[in-house]
Specification:
509 residues; mainly alpha; 20 helices; 74% helix
Length: 509
């Protein structure tokens, strides 16, 4: 217990010290929200990766999908690395940086307002961000608290409150730069921790080959695979179609999440994009791939402790904590700090995104006219506290499993924003009506499914919302009134601007 407490005290002390150090970068709105748009490749890549993966992945998703799909759940981690990290950086990174800097936009709703010359679109986008980031924030606490209860026997309530207080401290003190530096530190902890935990868990099962052999003996769900032997160690698992839905939501979803895309706004230069692409992809391979690979062995830890005593159903959020409960104290301490790192990095990114969006896109110029920079920063700091308090209240009485909460949040946000944002970077023909159609399709499909339930899984509903947006936006844009050509041409001129670069960056004569 002493070791675990010392690890926690050191962790929290470092986070607060970083917040104090980064205060000098948070004196302007640009500095507080984007770190002055001068964040290097390592910090940006780790900020992207740690915002991507939280306790939701480690505790909620890894346990649930490892139980359902066995070793094949590792495909989710591979999809996260290839689609959610590598392709996201290649397809969106450079163009996002160039166009948002050209437009002077600091948030995703601000981008919609500037790119499509529409204040209503900006306001609508900020409301969507405000509403749907809160359940995601609440789900982050939920996953962490179960590990704290297992390791320290601390009541859930105190876990949630302590985490919110320390997150508020360093984000309010140092803004984006404090978040980015802490993300880097937390990312290193995550990389080391996940490797150590996988090695320890498999060693406890007699090694990798023995664990695989035991998994192969487990009978699969007759309704899904008709009793196919070894389904939980097969290449695509017992339910490939639903597995694909999870891969799409958790991988393609990052392309439309404001807290993820915001990392590209802040990146420093050309080299940072190239280096950041490689680092964030490798980070995703280790962390996400490792989490789902570990979760794939969940059924080896089948015991009464993971079942609801009333209904007899599997409590997915308790699977990973149960898997780790037999580890030595020092490793449990590392796991707690690992998941705390993952959760606080995601949490800080979420509350900074929410507060900046509300301040810059909704309150400024709409509620409060002529808002000074100092007032904008103070308002964001107050809203950070507000968002944390609201999310704590929800987290103390969560309505459903972690994965479902996150599925609803990701489905609505990515379903609404992915298509209008990506097409807006590449295609001059996107219209305001097309963007509205994308917003309505993404949010409408997700919300309708919450109440009607025509798609059984919120995960698959989220994936369907994203695909719907990718179809609806171009179709409506082709048949609706076009934006003013001169204005659109001026926006896209930023890509044609001539720059001088060194020979090592180009072989062109």
């Amino acid at each position: 217990m002493v070791i675990k407490v010392i690890l926690l005290v050191v962790f929290f002390a470092v986070m607060v010290c970083v917040g104090l150090y980064a205060r000098r970068h948070a004196t302007s709105v640009d500095g507080f929200v984007l770190g002055g748009r001068s964040v290097g490749p390592w910090l940006t890549a780790f900020a992207y990766g740690t915002s991507y993966f939280s306790a939701v992945v480690f505790v909620g998703y890894a346990g649930q999908f490892g139980w359902k799909y066995g070793i094949a759940s590792t495909w989710i981690g591979i999809g996260n690395a290839v689609i959610g990290s590598l392709l996201a950086w290649v397809v969106l990174g450079r163009r996002t940086k160039i166009m948002t800097q050209h437009l002077g936009s600091k948030t995703m709703p601000d981008f919609f307002g500037q790119r499509y010359s529409s204040k209503p679109l900006k306001i609508a986008a900020s409301v969507i961000v405000f509403v749907f980031l809160i359940p995601y924030t609440a789900s982050v606490y939920n996953g962490l608290s179960r590990l704290f209860e297992m390791a320290f026997n601390i009541p859930y309530t105190w876990c949630v409150i302590a985490m919110a207080v320390f997150t508020a401290l360093y984000v309010i003190l140092g803004g984006y730069m404090a978040t980015a530096i802490n993300d880097f530190i937390q990312g290193i902890i995550m990389l080391v921790g996940i490797v150590a935990v996988i090695a320890a868990v498999l060693n406890g099962q007699g090694g990798f080959m023995n664990a695989i052999s035991e998994m192969a003996q487990i009978p699969s769900d007759v309704a899904v695979t008709e009793g196919q032997p070894g389904a939980f160690t097969s290449f695509f698992g017992p339910d490939p179609l639903n597995l694909l839905g999870v891969v799409i939501l958790t991988s393609l979803g990052t392309w439309g999440l404001p807290q993820m895309i915001g990392k590209f706004y802040a990146i420093k230069d050309e080299k940072s994009i190239n280096t950041g692409t490689v680092i964030s992809t490798l980070f995703a391979v280790v962390v996400s791939g490792g989490c789902y690979f570990l979760g794939g062995f969940a059924r080896l830890f089948d015991s009464p402790q993971i079942y609801d005593t009333t209904s007899g159903a599997v409590v997915y959020d308790s699977i990973i904590p149960h898997m780790l409960s037999a580890l030595p104290d020092i490793l449990i301490g590392i796991v707690v700090v690992l998941v705390l790192s993952a959760s606080m990095s995601t949490l800080s990114s979420l509350v900074l995104t929410s507060s900046s969006t509300m301040t810059l896109d909704l309150i400024k110029d709409n509620v409060v006219k002529n808002m000074s920079e100092k007032k904008q920063i103070i308002t964001m700091q107050v809203l950070i506290v507000f968002f944390l308090v609201v999310s704590v209240v929800i987290a103390l009485d969560p309505p459903t499993f972690i994965a479902q909460l996150m599925g609803i949040s990701w489905g609505a946000l990515a379903g609404a924003f992915l298509a209008p944002f990506m097409y807006g970077l590449y295609w001059k023909g996107v219209t305001r009506a097309g963007v509205w159609a994308g917003f309505i399709a993404g949010v409408g499909l997700t919300v309708a499914n919450m109440f009607i339930g025509f798609i059984e899984s919120p995960i698959n509903a989220g994936a369907a919302a994203m695909i719907a947006g990718l179809i609806v936006v171009p179709v409506v844009s082709l048949i609706s009134p076009k934006l003013e050509k001169k204005k659109v041409d001026e926006i896209f001129e930023c890509y044609e601007e001539k720059v001088v670069i060194s020979r090592k960056r180009s072989l062109q004569e």
